[in-house]
Design goal:
The chain contains 13 helices and 27 strands. The protein is α+β, with helices and mostly antiparallel strands. Strands 1, 2, 7, 8, 9, 10, 19 and 20 form an eight-stranded mixed beta sheet that branches. The chain has a six-stranded antiparallel beta sheet with strand order 15-16-17-11-18-21, sandwiched between helices. It binds flavin-adenine dinucleotide. The site of flavin-adenine dinucleotide has 34 residues, from helix 1, strand 2, strand 8, strand 18 and helix 7.
C-alpha cells in the first residue's frame, strides 16, 4: 500500500496538466513543487497547436480564453526568422492563444484542485528510489524532510530535471550559444520617437524598427503606445538559467555590447531571457519513474514546447490509470515512450530546421531562406508547415502497415446526431472515457464492444461524414481503430484493437 498513486514532481504547465488528466483517469496524484508560489518570471506568452483542440475537447478552453491577454491572433506564426502566414488559408491547420504562462499555470492548478488534486508548494524532492512495487521520494517541506511513496513518479521538473538525472536517463543534444533578452520598457525621456516608428538616441542617431544585425549580434525593437519592445541576441559561452529573472543592468549591458553604445531605457514592464537547447530524453520511462514536458525534451525554437509537453501528459495519464487500476494490457505504459518520443522527435526536426534558418548569414543559408520563402507561398506547403509546427499532423507509429490511415491520428470533431439530440466528438471527450463511435449502426461491432462495456462507452450516431463507419477513440482523443464505408473491416479487427488498448474483455457471464 502506497501513500498515493502517482507523485508528480513540478507544478509547471506539464505537472499541473498531468494532475488534471490523472484525476479524469481515476488516479490520485500528489503534486510536489519546490517554489512556494506560481512564478512571476515571464516565460511563454501563448499556447498554440493541437493542445488547444484537446483543451476544447476537455471543456477547458473557455477558462483559458477568459484568462487570455487578447483574442486569437491571426495565425501568423514565426518559423526561424520567417513567418508562416496562415491567414491565407481557409482551413487553418493550427490556432494560437496569447496567454502568459503564469495565467496558464493558474488555470491548470485551479482545474486540478477542483478535481481533487493535492498540490504541495514549497516541497522539494531531494531523492528518489524505486523497487518493483513502489517509488519513494525524499522531500524537504516547510516542516522538515519526510518520505512519501507512490506506485509511479513523473518528473515534470523542467529542462534541468533532477528526476531525469536520478533515474539515470540520458539527455543528449546540444546547447546553442545564442542568448536572447526580451524586454518591454517605457520609452526613456531622452529618446525621440518619430512618426514612422524610428527612434532617435543621442550619440547613436536614428534606429529603424525591426531586426538589425550588428558585429556583435542582433538588435530588434518596435514602439507602441509609449512602450519600447526590444530584443537582443548574442552568442555567449555563459550558461544561463531561464528561470532566473533578467535584470535591467544585464539588459543594458547586452544592448551596449550589441549596439556599441548606451541605449537609455525607461522603466521595466516585462523582462525575460531565453536560451536554446536541442535535447531529448533517451527513454521517457525508467521502471516506475517517467518524464514529461521540458524534462523530456528541449527544442531550439520558440512556440513548440508547451504544446508538446502538455500533450505528453494526455497520452501518459490514461495509461498510468490503466496500470494503477490493474487492467493495462502488456506494453501499454511503454507505448507512452513510443508515441511521445516520436512526437518529440518530430517537433525537434521542425525546430532544428528553424534554428538552421535563423542562425547565420552565410549566403548558402540566405539562399535556403529564399527557397523556403518561395515554398511557403504555395498553399499546400504552407498548410503542411502549419500542421507540422502545431503538431496537428502527428500520427502515432502503427506496428501494422495495413492499419486504417486514421489509426493513430487525433479524432476529428464530427457533429453527431443521436436519439438524444446533437452532440460532437469534443463533447464525448470531456470525461476522457474511451468510446466506440458507431456511425453505421453495425450490430456486429456493438456485440464485440459490449464485452468491454466496463471500460469503454458505445455511442450510436449519424454524421455528415459519410466515409467512416466506426471509430474507436482512446481517452487522449487519438483513434485506436477505424473502419470505412467503402472498405468495411470485420468485427475481429475491432476485437484485436480493444484487446491491444483496453485489455481483457468482461467474463462472458457479465458481458
Ligand atoms: C522567456 C521564455 C519564453 C518562452 N516562450 C514560450 C512560448 O511562447 N511557447 C512555448 O511553448 N514555450 C515557451 N517557453 C518554454 C516554456 O516556458 C517551457 O517549455 C515550460 O515552462 C515547460 O513546462 P514544464 O512544466 O515542463 O517545466 P517548468 O515550467 O520548468 O516547470 C518545472 C517545475 O518543476 C519544479 N521543480 C524542479 N525541480 C524540483 C524538485 N526537485 N522538487 C520539486 N519541484 C521541482 C520547478 O520549480 C518548476 O516549477 C518559453 C520559455 C522562456 C524562458
Amino acid at each position: 500500500m502506497t501513500d498515493t498513486d502517482v507523485i508528480i514532481v513540478g507544478a509547471g504547465p506539464t505537472g499541473l496538466m498531468l494532475a488534471g488528466e490523472l484525476r479524469l483517469a481515476g488516479v490520485e496524484p500528489l503534486v510536489l513543487e519546490r517554489q512556494a508560489q506560481i512564478r512571476e518570471t515571464p516565460k511563454a506568452s501563448g499556447l498554440g497547436g493541437r493542445i488547444l483542440d484537446l483543451l476544447r475537447y476537455r471543456g477547458l478552453l473557455e477558462r483559458f480564453e477568459a484568462a487570455a491577454s487578447g483574442p486569437y491572433p491571426p495565425p501568423r506564426f514565426p518559423f526561424g526568422n520567417l513567418y508562416l502566414d496562415l491567414t491565407q488559408l481557409d482551413d487553418v491547420p493550427m490556432h494560437a492563444l496569447p496567454i502568459p504562462q503564469r495565467a496558464i499555470e493558474r488555470v491548470l492548478e485551479d482545474h486540478a484542485r477542483d478535481l481533487g488534486t493535492e498540490v504541495r508548494r514549497g516541497h522539494e524532492v531531494l531523492a528518489v528510489s524505486q523497487d518493483e512495487n513502489a517509488v519513494t521520494a525524499e522531500v524537504r517541506g516547510p516542516d522538515g524532510v519526510y518520505r512519501v511513496t507512490a506506485r509511479y513518479l513523473v518528473g515534470c521538473d523542467g529542462g534541468r530535471s533532477p528526476i531525469r538525472e536520478l533515474a539515470g536517463i540520458a539527455f543528449s543534444g546540444i546547447t546553442y550559444p545564442e542568448v536572447n533578452r526580451l524586454a518591454q520598457v517605457t520609452v526613456h525621456e531622452s529618446v525621440t520617437v518619430h512618426d514612422d516608428g524610428d527612434i532617435e538616441v543621442a550619440g547613436m542617431g536614428r534606429l529603424h524598427p525591426g531586426f538589425t544585425r550588428t558585429d556583435n549580434g542582433v538588435f530588434a525593437f518596435a514602439v507602441n503606445a509609449g512602450v519600447l519592445s526590444l530584443q537582443t541576441t548574442e552568442d555567449e559561452s555563459a550558461e544561463y538559467d531561464d528561470n532566473e529573472p533578467l535584470s535591467m543592468a544585464e539588459l543594458a549591458d547586452s544592448c551596449r555590447r550589441v549596439l556599441g553604445a548606451d541605449l537609455p531605457l525607461g522603466d521595466p514592464i516585462r523582462l525575460s531571457r531565453y536560451t536554446f537547447q536541442d535535447r531529448q530524453a533517451e527513454r521517457y520511462r525508467a521502471g516506475r519513474i517517467l518524464v514529461a514536458g521540458d524534462a523530456a525534451h528541449l527544442f531550439p525554437a520558440t512556440g513548440t514546447a508547451l504544446n508538446v509537453g502538455m500533450l505528453d501528459t494526455v497520452d501518459l495519464a490514461w495509461k498510468l490509470g490503466a496500470e494503477i487500476a490493474g487492467w493495462a494490457p502488456a506494453g501499454l505504459l511503454d507505448s507512452y515512450h513510443d508515441e511521445r518520443h516520436f512526437a518529440g522527435a518530430r517537433a525537434r526536426t521542425q525546430t532544428r530546421a528553424q534554428a538552421a534558418l535563423r542562425r547565420t548569414d552565410d549566403p548558402a543559408v540566405e539562399a535556403l531562406r529564399d527557397v523556403f520563402r518561395e515554398l511557403i507561398s504555395d498553399t499546400p506547403a504552407l498548410r503542411r508547415m502549419g500542421a507540422m509546427v502545431g503538431a496537428t499532423d502527428v500520427r502515432y507509429p502503427q506496428p501494422d502497415p495495413e492499419t486504417h490511415p486514421l489509426a493513430g491520428t487525433f479524432a476529428p470533431d464530427l457533429t453527431l446526431h443521436t436519439d438524444q439530440g446533437t452532440t460532437s466528438v469534443a463533447e464525448l471527450m470531456r470525461t476522457a472515457r474511451p468510446v466506440l463511435l458507431d456511425l453505421a449502426d453495425r450490430t456486429d461491432l456493438h456485440e464485440v464492444a459490449r464485452e468491454w462495456s466496463h471500460r469503454i462507452d458505445i455511442r450510436i450516431a449519424k454524421t455528415d461524414d459519410l466515409t467512416t463507419e466506426a471509430l474507436l477513440i482512446r481517452p487522449d482523443a487519438h483513434i485506436a481503430w477505424a473502419t470505412d464505408v467503402h472498405a468495411p473491416t470485420d468485427a475481429a479487427t475491432l476485437r484485436t484493437a480493444l484487446t491491444t488498448w483496453f485489455g481483457e474483455p468482461l467474463p462472458a457471464a457479465d458481458a
